[in-house]
Specification:
There is one protein chain. With 104 residues, the chain is of the alpha+beta class. The protein is built from five helices and three strands, in the order αααβααββ. The protein has a three-stranded antiparallel β-sheet.
Length: 104
């Protein structure tokens, strides 16, 4: 969620949530998805029609998610676990983002 505003500003994409107080529905979805199991994340993101997952491994947000759910989807993804429903995407060398496309 912390990178949401930058993604909105710098890309043509939309985001599920950003860290704004009026976006509680999207924030709840993102938090529940990131803290849940990879299987539940796949189901939720597919049902929502989400195309990509972006993660900033150095973010404070990720630290909080890891503390709350060390075995949750986003912690596993940050640890390098691979999921057959996520295709890693190339990012510029100077970027600290990691990105994946959700397979149909």
């Amino acid at each position: 969620m912390d990178i949401g505003p930058r993604l909105l500003h710098d890309t043509p994409h939309t985001v599920i949530a950003s860290a704004h107080h009026r976006g509680e529905k999207g924030m709840h979805f993102a938090i529940a998805t990131f803290l849940g199991t990879p299987e539940a994340a796949h189901t939720a993101l597919t049902q929502r029609g989400t195309a990509y997952v972006a993660l900033c491994p150095d973010s404070n947000e990720l630290i909080r998610f890891r503390e709350a759910a060390p075995h949750g989807f986003v912690a596993q993804l940050a640890d390098g676990n691979r999921f057959d429903w996520l295709e890693p995407l190339p990012v510029p060398a100077d970027s600290n983002l990691k990105m994946w496309r959700i397979a149909p």
